[in-house]
């Protein structure tokens, strides 16, 4: 069974992540997701089967710089490319998946969904655009120090909208957007991308995360995660 399902809904596409471990982003799953996004229609709904997704599979990470360059950053660029992406979240969104969710044009979550940065817990800084899209005082504080928020808190932070039936709302919006002036929508998105300075941001993110991959704290973070024990960071 494929880890990512792409469905043709007529005027729009539905992409469903359905991997193990709450859709942890293994390299195989990232490759399938990138392929699905590139094959999808200009209006796309992105969601997960058991949850939205919980970021990188820490146990499978080897060369962080290579992973960012070859899959995480291409995923983010594809979401910010010439398409309208509606992300639908349920249960939990964590790590790199938080970046994917926040990079989406429309973000809808079910009540009580948890959004977790997660990176600092293994000695890394946020990546996949999380620090770029977490705006406002609370968002910036979380991007630096880590933490989590609920869907309801995220709505107050103007990061998303909460819906009792997020998939129904996403499908309604996808139909509505696909009947609208798509070229105008995409032109507006290009303008936003320029104002975000996405490429300069990703360049800095790549350099800083690559440095952190060689720190004692990162090695400790991964070891503690695998061994399910208390962290003992040294600030080195």
From TrEMBL:
SUPFAM superfamilies: ClpP/crotonase. It comes from the Archaea. InterPro entries: ClpP/crotonase-like_dom_sf, Enoyl-CoA_hydra/iso, Enoyl-CoA_hydra_C. The keyword DNA damage does not apply. It is an enzyme of class 4 (lyase). GO terms for molecular function: enoyl-CoA hydratase activity. This is Enoyl-CoA hydratase. It comes from Sulfuracidifex metallicus DSM 6482 = JCM 9184.
């Amino acid at each position: 069974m494929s880890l990512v399902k792409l469905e043709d809904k007529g005027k729009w596409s539905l992409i469903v992540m359905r991997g193990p471990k709450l859709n942890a982003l293994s390299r195989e799953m990232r490759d399938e997701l990138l392929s699905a996004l590139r094959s999808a229609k200009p209006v796309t709904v992105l969601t997960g089967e058991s949850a939205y997704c919980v970021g990188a599979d820490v146990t499978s990470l080897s060369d962080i710089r290579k992973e960012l360059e070859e899959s995480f950053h291409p995923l983010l660029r594809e979401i910010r490319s010439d398409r309208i992406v509606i992300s639908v979240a349920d249960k939990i969104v964590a790590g790199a998946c938080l970046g994917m969710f926040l990079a989406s044009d429309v973000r809808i979550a079910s009540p009580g969904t948890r959004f977790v940065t997660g990176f600092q817990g293994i000695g890394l800084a946020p990546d996949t655009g999380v620090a770029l899209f977490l705006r406002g005082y609370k968002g910036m504080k979380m991007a630096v120090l880590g933490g989590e928020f609920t869907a309801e808190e995220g709505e107050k932070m103007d990061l998303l909208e909460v819906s009792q039936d997020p998939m129904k709302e996403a499908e309604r919006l996808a139909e509505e957007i696909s009947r609208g002036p798509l070229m105008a929508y995409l032109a507006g998105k290009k303008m936003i991308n320029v104002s975000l300075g996405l490429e300069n941001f990703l360049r800095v993110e790549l350099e800083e995360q690559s440095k952190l991959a060689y720190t004692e704290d990162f090695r400790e973070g991964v070891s503690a995660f695998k061994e399910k024990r208390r962290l003992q960071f040294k600030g080195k």
